[in-house]
């Protein structure tokens, strides 16, 4: 096993708590570790936590995360970045941990399945050991993939799932299931305070244009006037949550009583076929792209929709942003990003 990293990984403390006015008198500014903080969800979470007055350490190996996503956060003195792989142990003094480190897009997590499994399992183990040592509350970004190709619809937390243990999605699905097991065993054995959310398909700004997930693929294809690639006949369904709603849910989950561990579903219950999504994107971008049909990937779930009653009861959470509004914001983001990239290419030429 690699040696634990020294405490000097902790960011400089001199500027800490320099602008904590948004913290109310009943709250305390905390040192918060966000693993996967340069990724799509992690970068939004880091920004939220900084704006709430906390000190944030973004830990990332930059495998799918982008420096661009966190560039603007460097203006906060309470923000620091540690380049590190969660597969290796880390020693750092923190009050809270959000574990988001893991590629989430099927092409990315399938590119190196062994690394994905190690990230899910060893990453969870290393961070739980850190939580046990420091007494930090720890949050796990689990997934609707826990339910696999579900035989129960909509999916409730009590459903155990229908997961293939050796298909192309297994490194992720089984890795995330094993991580949940580790979280509960650390909770039972070592009294670690755990918070597990099962995230359903979420989209928004800060996704990579080459992320490979359906919303970013369709928007980028539509903006570039390329064919829109529907896998299968497009009748499979997904429920799409806008990122701002999801981050609200993360914060509300982290603020629950210690006795509430989850797992709790977070997602938007509005359910759409992939063909309907393609039609919406074409309409909202005004694109002349055509839809083309490619083979359906192995083990692609047929339908997915969260039952969010538990999140409503325990967190008082429900998503507010309808698909058309969230798509417009995401289209705007990709439009600007593609223009920036075109400008950079023109400058090089
Ligand atoms: P993402 O790929 O944009 O972000 C993942 C981040 O983790 C990246 O910054 C990446 O560089 C980093 N990372 C990957 N492996 C790492 C490792 N071994 N060590 C350190 N850093 C590592 O994906 P995302 O959509 O932001 O997903 C974030 C988390 O949420 C993931 O754990 C994912 O499983 C979970 N999740 C996301 C969704 C969704 O719809 N976005 C759905 C379900 C679950
Ligand atoms: N999909 C598609 N075209 C694409 C990318 C994805 O039709 O260019 C489909 C994919 O087969 C799946 C759905 O869209 O049925 C959601 O895929 P995504 O990779 O976004 O997430 P996940 O399958 O993990 O829910």
TrEMBL record:
GO terms for cellular component: cytoplasm. GO terms for molecular function: NAD+ binding; UDP-glucuronate decarboxylase activity. Its cofactor is NAD(+). SUPFAM superfamilies: NAD(P)-binding Rossmann-fold domains (SSF51735). It is found in: Cytoplasm. The keyword NAD applies. This is NAD-dependent dehydratase. The lineage of its organism: Bacteria, Pseudomonadati, Pseudomonadota, Alphaproteobacteria, Hyphomicrobiales.
């Amino acid at each position: 096993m690699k040696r634990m990293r020294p405490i000097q990984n902790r960011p400089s403390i001199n500027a800490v708590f320099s602008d904590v006015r948004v913290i109310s008198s009943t709250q305390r500014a905390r040192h918060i570790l966000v693993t996967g903080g340069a990724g799509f969800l992690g970068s939004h979470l880091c920004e939220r936590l900084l704006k709430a007055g906390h000190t944030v350490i973004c830990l990332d190996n930059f495998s799918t995360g982008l420096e661009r996503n966190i560039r603007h956060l460097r203006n906060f003195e309470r923000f620091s970045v540690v380049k590190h792989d969660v597969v290796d142990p880390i020693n750092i003094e923190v009050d809270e941990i959000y574990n988001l480190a893991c590629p989430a897009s099927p092409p990315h997590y399938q590119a190196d399945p062994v690394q994905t499994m190690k990230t899910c399992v060893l990453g969870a183990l290393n961070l739980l050991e850190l939580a046990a040592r420091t007494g930090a509350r720890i949050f796990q970004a689990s997934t609707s993939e826990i339910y696999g190709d579900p035989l129960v619809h909509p999916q409730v937390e009590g459903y155990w799932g229908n997961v293939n243990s050796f298909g192309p999605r297994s490194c992720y699905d089984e890795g995330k299931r094993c991580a949940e097991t580790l979280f509960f065993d650390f909770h039972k054995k070592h009294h670690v305070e755990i918070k597990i959310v099962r995230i359903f398909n979420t989209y928004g700004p800060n996704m990579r244009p080459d992320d490979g997930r359906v919303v970013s693929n369709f928007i980028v294809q539509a903006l570039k006037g390329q064919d829109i690639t529907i896998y299968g006949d497009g009748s499979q369904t997904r429920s799409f949550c806008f990122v701002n709603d999801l981050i609200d849910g993360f914060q509300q989950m982290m603020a629950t009583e210690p006795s509430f561990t989850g797992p709790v579903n977070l997602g938007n219950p509005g359910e759409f076929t992939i063909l309907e999504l393609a039609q919406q994107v074409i309409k909202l971008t005004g694109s002349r792209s055509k839809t083309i049909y490619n083979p359906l990937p192995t083990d692609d779930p047929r339908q997915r929709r969260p039952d969010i009653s538990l999140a409503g009861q325990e967190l008082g959470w429900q998503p507010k942003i309808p698909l058309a509004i969230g798509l417009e914001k995401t289209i705007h983001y990709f439009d600007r990003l593609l223009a920036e990239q075109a400008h950079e290419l023109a400058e090089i030429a």
